[in-house]
Amino acid sequence: MSPHNVESAQVVLPCSEPISTTINFFTGIGFKVRTIVPADHPRMAVLQGFGLTLRLEVSSAAPPAHLRLLTTDGEPATVTAPNGTVIEFAAANPPLEIPPLREEFVLTRMADDDSAFGEGRAGMNYRDLIPGRLGGRFIASHILIPHGGPVADYVHFHNIRFQMIYCYRGWVRVAYEDQGEPMLLQEGDCFLQPSTIRHRVLEASDRMQVIEIGCPAEHETWGDPETTLPTGRTLPHRGYGADGHRFVFHQAATASWAPWRLAGYEYRDTGIGVAMDGVAGVRVVRPVGSPAPVTTQHEAELMFHFVLDGAITLQRADDQPLRLLEGDSFVMPSHTPFTLSDPTADAQLLDVTLPATP
Q1: DSSP for 290-332?
Q2: pTM of the predicted structure, to 2 decimals
Q3: What is the mean pLDDT of residues 5-11?
Q4: Nearby residues of 219 by Cβ (< 8 Å), 6 or more positions away
Q5: Distance (Å) of CA 224 to CA 122, 156, 198, 218, 281
Q6: How much is the pLDDT for 7?
Q7: Cα dihedral sign, 216-219-224-229
Q8: Residue of 43, 45, 12, 28 lying closest to 79 (CA atoms)
Q9: Residue 181: is its pLDDT beyond 70?
Q10: pLDDT value at position 149?
Q11: For residue 37, which of 29, 47, 46 has the smallest C-alpha distance?
């Protein structure tokens, strides 16, 4: 099929005679008539409104259509035009829905090959680290780009409560709205992507891998072809989204370490807790020397750990101990005692909690 020089687009809606009743309906809700043919006995009309062009055609063959009009005020409503078209008035900016939390213990093992990865957006492969999604509240993904070079991404943004990106292996270059020139995220570095910040993945190394965690599990991703990145502005303190959370670029090379909440371990903080006003926290944890077994529990909404390097043993109450290796992860439900023990000297864990202080 040869390419066409497309100038505009129309949505074709069938209607019955007389077409005037359908024209009057649409003009009554704000559309304007642009074309009508023929004048003495109209059988086709073109109307425009709200960034949409409608083409009404007298026909009995096609089923009725469904049209959504996004509004900034008023209650949601549905009406039916004389030609049978269903008109839905829906909120242009509906509030973010956070599903009820369904807690469970989740253990995900890393396979010896890439068989657990499935094809996802923009040529990226995804491994699901929380298959049950905790009732739809959280998603955690291990993302792999098998072949390096330019990434077939586009400027987009997410309507989301929380989303972080941790570089597990390799590197990736990403451009963010109002955050200066594109940034190189290297192994150990971390981004906080606040809601609605425009961004685009530009290029990556061979077998680049990141860990991405978001809430809610299912959220809107919007393309924004009108925005060009970088924007030429650097606004490090800008707030994004309804909550005004700030962008974070944590770099492992310049991070400092401090004692962790469990004895015998230390952590480097990514700064996400401060940028999100305490909503979520992201840390990297490692043992100090040869720590004794330590038992704990929590009252947090989420406690997620991913084994970045080395190995460590996890045990819940009277269950059998589980030796966790590189690439394994677990979610621990609240009010569930568990013990961490026998970390290797090179062990490192990604520690993600909501709230920031569990």
Answers
A1: SPPPEEE----SEEEEEEEESEEEEEETTSPPEEEETT-EEE-
A2: 0.83
A3: 67
A4: 96, 158, 159, 160
A5: 15, 5, 8, 19, 29
A6: 63
A7: positive
A8: 28
A9: yes
A10: 95
A11: 46
Helical ranges in the chain per DSSP H: 19-28, 272-275
Distances (CA, A) of 349 to 86, 140, 309: 52, 15, 7
Separation CA 59–CA 17 (nearest Å): 9
Least confident of 59-68, 252-261, 266-275, 324-333: 59-68
| Strand bridging mode 162-169 / 190-192 | antiparallel
Q: Which candidate, 183, 171, 252, 175, places its Cα nearest to that of 208? A: 171
Assess contact for 194 and 236: CB atoms under 8 A.
Answer: no
Which domains occur in the chain, in start order?
A: 11-91 (3.10.180.10), 106-249 (2.60.120.10), 254-354 (2.60.120.10)
CA distance linking residue 243 with residue 192, whole number of Å: 14
Q: How far apart are CA 206 and CA 203, in angstroms?
A: 10
Measured between alpha carbons, how far is 219 from 158 in angstroms, rounded to an integer?
7
Let me know: does 239 contact 216? Beta carbons within 8 Å: no
DSSP3 helix / strand / coil % (the chain, rounded to 5) = 5, 45, 50
Q: Which pLDDT band holds residue 2 (cuts at 50, 70, 90)?
A: very low
Read off the pLDDT of residues 193-252 as tens digits, 9 standing for 90 and up: 999 999 999 999 999 999 999 999 988 888 888 999 999 999 999 999 999 999 999 999
Q: What is the pLDDT of residue 299?
A: 97
Amino acid 6: pLDDT:
55
Pairing of strands 11-15, 52-58: parallel
Please tell me the distance from the alpha carbon of residue 130 to that of residue 254, in angstroms, as a whole number: 31
Query: Which residues, 6+ apart, have CB-to-CB distance to 102 below 8 Å?
Result: 132, 134, 135, 137
Cβ-Cβ contacts under 8 Å for 221 (sequence gap 6 or more): 121, 156, 157, 158
Rounded Cα distance, 209 and 53, in Å: 43
Report the chain's mean pLDDT, rounded to a whole number. Answer: 91
Over residues 28-49, the pLDDT tens digits come to 999 998 888 776 678 888 899 9
User: Phi-psi category of 296—alpha, beta or left, where left has phi over 0 and alpha has psi -120 to 50?
Assistant: beta
